[in-house]
Amino acid sequence: MIVAMHMDDRLVHGQVVMTWIPRVQANVVLVANDAVFNDKIRRSTMKLAVPTSTKIGFRTIDGAIEFLNNPQNSSYRVMVLTNNPFDAEKICEHVNGVEKITIGGIRKNAPMIRDNLNLTLEDIGSFERIMAKGIKVGMQPTPNHKFEDLSDTFKSITDKQ
To answer: Which residues form the PTS EIIB type-4 domain (predicted)?
Structure first.
């Protein structure tokens, strides 16, 4: 069962480990990212950050979809981590049970939408397609922060285009 889907360009980092995992009571952290899956050093570094009581898995996006759809994995409390809206969109297209996506931060060479959130129009389009499926998308760096729905923000940007 997916207990959380969180998006952050850093993937596994202190806020995820210290606040998100305990709050959602995840017993599996699934890093869904093609590049990380193929980077042994990054995988090793991320493994060190996660408590030994929590399993961490690394999958390509297609592998993550397969894992999340496998009934044998339904007893796990899975926190899915992605670092971009395109990967999240693909997962949301092929996996049931995602209710909302929380964004901790996406910092890249793109227009700043708000602090720690830089997006292209293509990124926003991806988020809009996710939201069209009834999935909420919002900023929430930690569970202690209020979830800030981004639908109006995205709409105001695309309306200007």
So the answer is: 1-161
| CA 52 – CA 44 distance, rounded (Å) | 13
Give helix 151-160 / helix 121-132 axis angle, nearest 10°: 130
Which residues contact residue 103 at a Cβ distance below 8 angstroms, ignoring those fewer than 6 apart?
Answer: 6, 7, 8, 117, 137, 138, 139, 140, 150
pLDDT on residue 31: 98
**Domains of the chain: residue spans and CATH:** 2-159 (3.40.35.10)
Closest residue by Cα to residue 139 from 130, 149, 131, 129: 149
61-110, pLDDT tens digit by residue? 999 999 999 999 999 999 999 999 999 999 999 999 999 999 999 999 99
Which of the 8 DSSP states describes residue 13? -
pTM of the model as a whole: 0.96
The secondary structure element, H or E, covering residue 148 is strand 148-149
- In terms of DSSP bridges, do strands 117-118 and 112-114 run parallel, antiparallel, or are they unpaired? antiparallel
